[in-house]
TrEMBL record:
Residues 175-312 form the GGDEF domain. It holds the Pfam family GGDEF. This is Unannotated protein. It comes from freshwater metagenome. Residues 321-583 form the EAL domain.
Length: 587
């Protein structure tokens, strides 16, 4: 139960005020009702009776006026009435107005969600009702989408890790949990031959075939583009694990039918088994998948269509990761890192409205590495803070130089965006950012900070204050990867940001989903659009790779976006020319 400040105030007791409320209820365009409390012999509230209501309330509550006026709440709502009485009695006793979202049985087959503003009036209450059923259903749909791969209808990466955690927790120190990492061999060849539609059909068939081999207590999930993860229940004995792996290998060796063609494909499978003392945490689940992934890489190195079991010999790749960390330290000090940029564009005009600063590593042996290939190692090695500041300083210097070659009337409102992790938002972050912006000659309003809303809730709550302080100083703030896993879309009510950036998995689903899945996703976009308008936040989407993704985003109020379909990533030397071309072709 909440106590919204805009409703708080003294209890309305005067008869004249009560009369005015009665008149206001009839004139209001909102769903207004006044109910009097019914007391038992001990003075306890046992029910509420409708004494005033209007046509709008009748429509929202799905009851004709004659069934409301003069009747008690428990008579009108047999299933949910008792709960309403309890909540309203607490409000009446406290004398404080309240805001509550509650499900009521306006229709026994399809209950409605109602948001109620309740104001105590002595021995009565005034209730303003709003039907929020569509919003609550859309949030429920997105919760389902957040854990399901739309193409194969299997659990996705997030759900896979949750399932592995559950298996580890369920069996504790008993039988180990086994994870298989299934990496399809030469899947790109199928895509090149049959197109993306053929590749998608193959993935669907593989998903179905893997599922047909497994038992009900096992789980198969799509982990990435052509990667699947299988979690075998901890009660499976070693010989049972071997038998299931053999069945999976045999099943995948049977050709698949794509159109008029038979397609033969194999998989490299890595196997990892938990230790008896491992707990059911997300870190442990990630470690188990990581070990299985390393083993799958070894299977592929051995010639594909192989199975490899993780052990210390294969674990030398982890040692190699340590070497990469040492090399990264040197790269940071010796100038082997580079800043690249990707434009954020207005979706209607295609005009650049911002730049996202990205770090790349020009490795002497492995070539240009993207951030995803080394930032996780940087986090583990404690390099995130110095690396992040280096990127911000270098990007500001580079962008300032570029501004001298571009018309100021085209660039004066562009924002330079930086992704930050919770680790970076330490006590010195604000002072550093202010100093770096001043040194480069940037107004605070020209610099934006992005933070994932997917950060663990406790961490997010702590860092929220820092972000709000930055916003008060004039810096722009964006919440990225926004999804229901951050306490639902409604959690955005508690945070003041300038931009809401939709999670990439949802953008990807826009290009892949169909039928009821797509309908549900579009419904969520609609809710997000309404919420952003209500909160005064701008909608942005990243990872836009096709027109099929772009169109529905524009239709649902998304203003800006980034992705290779709109503007590719460019290096510092190519930035000015790329922006000039974009300005020349924008409308």
């Amino acid at each position: 139960m909440t106590d919204p400040s805009h409703l708080a105030g003294p209890v309305v007791k005067a008869d004249t005020e009560y009369s005015l409320l009665r008149r206001a209820a009839f004139a209001s365009m909102d769903a207004e009702s006044i109910l009097t409390a019914e007391f038992d012999a001990d003075g306890q509230v046992v029910d509420f009776r409708f004494v005033v209501t209007n046509v709008v309330a009748s429509q929202v509550l799905r009851r004709p006026m004659v069934e409301l006026l003069g009747h008690t709440v428990t008579e009108v709502f047999p299933s949910s009435g008792a709960n309403l009485v309890r909540i309203w009695a607490e409000c009446l006793a406290s004398g404080i107005a309240m805001l509550e979202e509650i499900q009521i049985d306006t229709d026994m087959e399809h209950p409605r969600w109602i948001r109620q503003q309740v104001l105590p009036l002595g021995d009565a209450i005034a209730v303003t009702s709003h039907d929020i059923t569509d919003r609550r259903r859309a949030e429920a749909d997105l919760r389902s989408l957040a854990h399901q791969d739309p193409l194969t209808e299997l659990p996705n990466r997030r759900a896979a890790l949750d399932g592995i955690c559950a298996s580890l927790e369920r069996h504790g120190h008993g039988s180990p949990t086994t994870v298989l990492f299934v990496d399809l061999d030469r899947f790109k060849t199928v895509n090149d031959t049959f197109g993306h539609a053929g590749g998608d059909e193959l993935l669907r068939q593989i998903a179905a075939r893997l599922g047909s081999v497994l038992r009900a207590e096992d789980m198969v999930a799509r982990f990435g583009g052509d990667e699947f993860v299988v979690c075998l229940d901890g009660s499976t004995p070693p010989q049972g694990v071997s038998s299931i792996i053999d069945k999976l290998v045999d099943a995948l060796r049977v050709p698949f039918r794509i159109g008029d063609s038979d397609v033969a494909i194999s998989a490299s499978i890595g196997v990892a088994t938990s230790h008896p003392d491992w707990s059911g945490t997300i870190d442990t689940a990630n470690l188990l998948v990581h070990q299985a992934d390393i083993a799958a890489y070894e299977a592929k190195r051995q010639g594909r269509d192989q199975v490899a079991i993780f052990d210390e010999r294969i674990g030398h790749r982890v040692d190699r990761a340590g070497m990469i960390v040492r090399e990264l330290r040197n790269a940071l000090s010796e100038g082997h890192l580079e800043v690249h940029f990707q434009a954020q564009v207005h979706l209607e005009t295609r005009r650049p409205v911002g730049l996202e600063a990205l770090v790349r590593w020009n490795h002497p042996e492995h070539g240009l590495l993207s951030a995803g290939e080394f930032l996780p190692l940087a986090e583990d090695a404690g390099l995130t803070v110095p690396l992040g500041r280096w990127v911000r300083q270098r990007a500001m210097e580079s962008w300032k130089r570029s501004l001298g070659s571009l018309p100021s009337n085209l660039t004066d409102k562009m924002i330079l965006w930086f992704k930050v992790s919770p680790t970076e938002l330490q006590s010195n972050f604000i002072a550093w950012l202010v100093a770096d912006a001043a040194a480069a000659g940037f107004a605070h309003s020209s610099v934006g900070i992005e933070m994932e809303a997917e950060s663990p809730e406790a961490v997010f709550a702590i860092k929220k204050q820092t972000l709000e302080e930055l916003r008060a100083l004039g810096f722009r703030i964006a919440l990225t990867e926004v999804s229901v896993n951050h306490a639902g879309i409604s959690a955005l009510h508690s945070f003041a940001a300038d931009v809401i950036k939709l999670e990439r998995v949802a953008v990807t689903q826009l290009g892949e989903s169909a039928g009821s899945t797509r309908t549900a996703l579009l419904g969520v976009l609609s809710v997000l659009g309404s919420l952003s308008a209500e909160l005064g936040m701008q909608l942005c989407a990243g990872g836009i790779e096709s027109e099929a993704q772009l169109a529905p985003l524009k239709d649902h109020g998304f203003v800006s976006g980034a992705g290779d379909h709109l503007a590719p990533v460019v290096s510092e030397p190519d930035l000015v020319e790329a922006l000039e071309n974009m300005f020349a072709t924008s409308t």
